[in-house]
Amino acid sequence: MLHYRFCFLIFTFLNIFSLELSAQNHTVPLIKVKKLTQEACDYLDETNYEKSLKKSGIALQYAFDIKNDTLISRNYNIIGINFHDLGEVNKAVFFYKKALFYAERSNIVSLRMMITSNLGNLYFFEKKMYNDGITYYKESLKFGRQQKYLKEVAITNLNIVWSYFKIGNYKEGLPYLQYINKHQNDLKGKSNDIALNFLNGMYWASEKENDKATTYFLKAISYNKSKDDKPDLAYAHLEYSKFLSKIGKHKEAYDNLVIYNKITGELYSQEKLKKASIAGLNLELDEYKRQIEKIENEKTSQLQSLKKSRIIVILFILISFILLFLIVTLVKNIGFKKKHNLELLKAKEIAEEASLLKTQFISTISHELRTPLYGVVGITNMLLEEHKELSQSEHLSALKFSARYLLSLVNDILQINKIEENKVVLESLTFNISDEITVIKNSLSFLSQKNNNKINVEIDTAIPEYLIGDKLRLAQILMNLVSNALKFTKDGEVEIRVKLDRIEGKFYYLNFLIKDNGVGIAAVDQNKIFEKFVQVGRKEEDYQGTGLGLSIVKRLLGLFGSSITLESDLGAGTSFSFAIPFEHDPLKTKKIIENIEVDLTSSDIYKILIVEDNLINQLVTKKIIEKNNFVCKVVDDGFGALSILEKEQFDLILMDINMPLMNGFETTKRIRQLGIKTPIVALTAFDKDEITDEAISSGMNDIIVKPFEPVKLFKILNYLISEARNAG
């Protein structure tokens, strides 16, 4: 059997790697473990399996004591070879694999080479699993090539050739045969020469080169029949007999077959004798296996117990320190708590007062900002209506858009707490992405001209004409990013790119990229710029702003379920990118457009009373109402409203809230006390959520927040007037 060829290497490897084995327990000298291992190997060579197993078992226990993976692996390998020789194939596999595990841990390449070769022999010769044998041989060969062990490499190549030829795969085996023929001197053994010659004979027989095949077969069977050569010589006669039979030389084939049977008969008799001699050892062998497993389990258990004991001691010490620390801290905290309770209560009161002041400030500033914005939006609309020639004016369109954008920005800045608490709901409006970006570009033309920049727009043609989504929030995001790019770029370009990424059902995912070639942002500052009130690299003479723009962008994108990506290098420019899904539904779009494009004219003439103290807002509201052919009267305060209502009847009252002398809520209560049931709509700059409860309790029918869309106003007017007349 070819696996004997690796047995003699065991102690050689022990000497080669003795430096690695220096780590040891002083109670068991390393030299003693090596000596026991050598004795186990010597007994194995003498086929004294019982003594070999005893010595290797003791050596294994000592190897575990000194925690030396290399010695553990070598003794497991010796035990595996013992069982291999005794025909205990499954036990041999078990111990070979144990040996391989510890060899991998010790990282001794030559040891792994030897063990994998032994496994290859076992799977090939005993289990007849030729492909598995080839796999192990090739693994062994890989290790051998790394270490350049010429003889072992040659023998492993020989085994691979034999394996491939055994399954009739001459093509795969040929490269390995060619290698051995080239390195024949590396084999250094008569038995190996026999095998090499009859394998060459098998190959040339497969190629139908009968003369060459005959030469090699005759060479193979010409060697002396020593004890060690007999197994390979038997195979040589068998393969030569098969060849002779194929070429029609049946008598010579028969003669060689007789010789094969004779040799195998002798080997079989010897095998029977060997098995008979060891039959009484089977129970002991099983006991050795159990003892070896017990050794390993005991060592593992001891290591685990030791680790647990150490952990318990460490934990006990830690817990003791923690408990002591907690006791000291508890004593101190009792005194500290008593001392600082009053301070905490005071701090709580201050915090509550600050929160209330903040709420009041937001409410007041919201009203004060929306009121003039209502005038700006209203007067812009009036200019567009009264001067049709200005309808195509980019400047006027930009003014109108900027006013609406400013209103949206004011709403978001002043209600930033609302955004953080996810109370802002996105709207569903139909829009054209190209039109929206064109308006943004035109609105920012003055800023681009100031820094001599150029705005380039690229929109994917695959994007549908109409999409549905919150176009105002999108515009606010783009306005912030593009205006930032223009501020930080001089004599350069700002690109706005919109591409269709993918389609999922009715949703079109659009990728937006805002890119400039301006000053760029340093890597250390890139994580800061999305925080509130942060401005990076600002000089006093440059870049106006609050530092809220990118913070708002990030929060608004969060409402869309998206996030923003930043790429920037100093001096090379900056790019921001994000993706937002928008709905594309032609039927829904048509319905939205139809709802917007309503007929604002009415065949009935309604009489409306406007109660408003701001002169500009009076003018704007009156113009909007009279444009729809309504009759409109205006009073400056609540007392004026009560006075005119005593004399005249109206179809509806538009009531401002924040007025001098008497506010809108009080005025409405007094109107209801007079028994007047005319619908009253609050027309206010306050946030709707802040006044809803008080408006309903005072007797108001609805609320419209300034600035407003005229369409929305007339829808409410028509509905409330119609309801009041039907009720009457």
TrEMBL record:
Its EC number is 2.7.13.3. The keyword Membrane applies. It comes from the Bacteria. It catalyses: ATP + protein L-histidine = ADP + protein N-phospho-L-histidine. Residues 607-721 form the Response regulatory domain. Residues 364-584 form the Histidine kinase domain. Keywords: Coiled coil, Membrane, Phosphoprotein, Signal, Transmembrane, Transmembrane helix. InterPro entries: CheY-like_superfamily, HATPase_C_sf, HATPase_dom, His_kinase_dom, HisK_dim/P_dom, HisK_dim/P_sf, Sig_transdc_His_kin-like_C, Sig_transdc_resp-reg_receiver. Gene3D superfamilies: 1.10.287.130, 3.40.50.2300, Histidine kinase-like ATPase, C-terminal domain, Tetratricopeptide repeat domain. It is an enzyme of class 2 (transferase). Residues 1-23 form the signal peptide. PROSITE patterns: HIS_KIN, RESPONSE_REGULATORY. The modification 4-aspartylphosphate is found at residue 656. Residues 278-305 form a coiled coil. The chain crosses the membrane at residues 311-331. PANTHER family: HISTIDINE KINASE, HYBRID SIGNAL TRANSDUCTION HISTIDINE KINASE J. This is histidine kinase. It comes from Flavobacterium soyae. The lineage of its organism: Bacteria, Pseudomonadati, Bacteroidota, Flavobacteriia, Flavobacteriales.
